[in-house]
Amino acid sequence: MLKNLLNITVLSLAIFHVQLSAVEVTKLDQADIIVDSRANSARSAALKQALASVFLKNSGSPSVVMHPTVKAQIDNPEALLIQYGYSQADSDLLLTASFDHQRVISTLRQADLPVWGAQRPLTLLWVTIADANDTVILSDSSESALRSDLIAESNNKGIPVLLPLMDLDDLMAVSPTDVKGMFLSPVNIASARYQTDYFAIADISETTSAVTFTLSLFDKTQTGSTLQPLIKQQGEAVDTAAASKRIMALLADYYISQYAIASSGNNLETHVSFTGVTQMTQLVEIEKYLQQLSAVKEISISQFQNETVTYQLSLFSSVEDLQRLLSIDNRLSKIDTMGNVNSYLEPKSNDKSTLTYQWQGQ
């Protein structure tokens, strides 16, 4: 069944590399802008818009583009531009621009703004909409304009989402009434087959005067009576496209608060150990992973023995922020060192900040 999951929405977006449950968002240095022509004036305006989009994807907060330091770069996009080109998408002419990723990040750091790394949580979206005289759950194979709107907003904001397959398994487990009525138990059970970090329940309904929506977000790691909504919102929009933008904006606001990391200005350090490291390729993979985490400033190996590598990390913010980022990657499994039956044989360390994980990457 998981093979089928590899064909659904996340891969169709072409900017996400699936590592269920965490997702590595790619092309954070690139943006596509619709232009009227190839004229210099149109290109100049599009490059500014593209760089603003890149800053937004790497920070998450819309207000980032108003910061004087960032705005100065946006007003002179050629200084960060690596390359650009044109392509045709249906009837639209697209300008695709790529910028210097490291300079984008350093600009955000210089401005003391949050940075959102490439590793981002994956969200399963259960959405009910009206279809003719019936209410249906929006599926990954739907040809609804709403699906296209959600994918576009997912791309623009760099928020990975899945829509359910709505195959026989889903149809037997959950109904539109369950989603629209926010009946949590059947939706939670149906979500188990999808290896995501979060699931959200939403309803979009059209009236004669407006479109109304509701949204609740849940952490899949919570169970039973502890499963409470992380966010619960309702509102109105002028149309379904605006409702989809509002829903994605609400999800973005929450994830930014949890995973976008601003520098604290303090020189914080910690140690992280990874067990199960038997090949040099794993070491390279771990270092590449650590270097892209938005909480990590610098890394260095402090010890490597008995299939365990320990890194000393210099952090932009707190150890808690680092742990939150580490928790969304399924290649890691946190080890409770106090539970190791052989721990009394191991040398005692005065460093109580060491985090230990089992590395399950390839």
Concise summary:
The chain has 362 residues and is an alpha+beta fold.
Chain-wise SSE layout:
Blueprint: H1 2-5, H2 9-12, E1 16-19, E2 22-25, E3 30-35, H3 40-59, H4 68-74, E4 81-89, E5 92-99, H5 101-110, E6 119-120, E7 123-131, E8 134-137, H6 145-157, E9 161-162, H7 168-173, H8 176-180, H9 184-191, E10 198-206, E11 211-219, E12 231-237, H10 240-259, E13 268-275, H11 280-291, E14 296-305, E15 308-315, H12 319-326, E16 332-334, E17 355-359
Parallel strand pairs: 7-9, 7-10, 13-17
Antiparallel strand pairs: 1-2, 2-6, 3-5, 4-5, 7-8, 10-11, 11-12, 13-15, 14-15, 16-17
Helix pairs in contact: 3-4, 6-10
Question: What descriptors fit this protein?
Answer:
362 residues, alpha+beta, six-stranded mixed beta sheet, five-stranded mixed beta sheet, 12 helices, 30% strand, globular, disordered N terminus
How would you describe what is shown here?
- The protein is globular and about 65 Å long.
- The strands form 4 sheets. Strands 7, 8, 9, 10, 11 and 12 form a 6-stranded mixed beta sheet that branches. The chain has a 5-stranded mixed beta sheet with strand order 14-15-13-17-16, covered by helices on one side. Strands 1-2-6 form a 3-stranded antiparallel beta sheet, with no helix packed on it.
- Residues 1-15 and 338-352 have low confidence and may be disordered.
- Helix 3 runs antiparallel to helix 4 and helix 6 (145-157) runs parallel beside helix 10 (240-259).
- A hairpin with a 2-residue loop joins strand 14 and strand 15.
- With 362 residues, the protein is α+β, with helices and mostly antiparallel strands.
- It starts with a helix and ends with a strand.
- The chain has 12 helices and 17 strands.
